[in-house]
Design a protein that fits this description.
Order of helices and strands: HEEEHEEEEEHHHHH
Radius of gyration: 21 Å
Number of helices: 7
Number of strands: 8
Helix content: 40-55%
Strand content: 15-25%
């Protein structure tokens, strides 16, 4: 479909069917939602944005868990029937809504994720380890092509909660999800700031083209 072509990488998997209604008191019109395997709240909100015209950033999913209604993160998936906040009604939506798993970030989501990464990478213990790593590459004249792998070893455990928050299984999946959003100059500028925190601009290296 057109949506599949414009919304990212489609993962076609078996589905489960859940009931959805708006987050209001009293009896509400319900719609059936067919969720593909691995589909997340983010996928649901993107689909509802396409169907209703309401921006996904104004929508959220709430679900009853342990006798308490909670708002789900974008990377989570509803376990059972759920409610939508931000919509007045679902009467104008299809009787059955099919939600596939797409891996793509909106500009808003990309900036939120990059802010989260920036906060993690600025931590003192990470910056200390990166400085030690950079010094070892300079002192031992090590091949800088191996630098990125060593950086991953330093940051992966601290970064993991962010991947889980946004529903990513791997770092590669996270990077691929920026396609489209990275056309926005705000995202590009923030990416440069984040990469600089990790030393990926190599300004720390004496043989860098930026250090004549």
């Amino acid at each position: 479909t057109h949506l599949a072509a414009s919304a990212g990488i489609l993962v076609a998997m078996p589905s489960k069917s859940l009931e959805m209604q708006v987050l209001k008191r009293g009896r509400q019109t319900k719609r059936m939602v067919d969720l593909s395997e691995n589909a997340t709240v983010q996928d649901i909100l993107m689909k509802l944005e396409a169907l209703s015209g309401v921006p996904s950033k104004h929508l959220f999913v709430a679900e009853l868990r342990n006798v308490q209604k909670v708002r789900l993160f974008s990377g989570e998936a509803p376990i059972g029937n759920f409610e939508i906040g931000g919509l007045d009604t679902v009467k104008d939506l299809p009787e059955v809504i099919h939600v596939e798993h797409y891996v793509q970030l909106s500009v808003h989501q990309a900036l939120e994720l990059l802010n989260d990464l920036q906060e993690v990478y600025q931590k003192a213990h990470i910056q200390k380890k990166l400085a030690e790593l950079q010094k070892s590459f300079i002192d031992e004249e090590r091949d800088v092509r191996h630098y990125g792998l060593r950086v991953e070893e330093i940051v992966e455990s601290d970064r993991q909660p962010i991947l889980e928050k946004f529903g990513f299984k791997t770092v590669l999946e996270m990077y691929n999800a920026f396609v489209g959003a990275d056309a926005d100059e705000r995202v590009v500028a923030k990416q440069k700031d984040v990469f600089a925190l990790l030393g990926h601009n190599f300004e720390w290296h004496p043989k860098s083209s930026k250090n004549p």
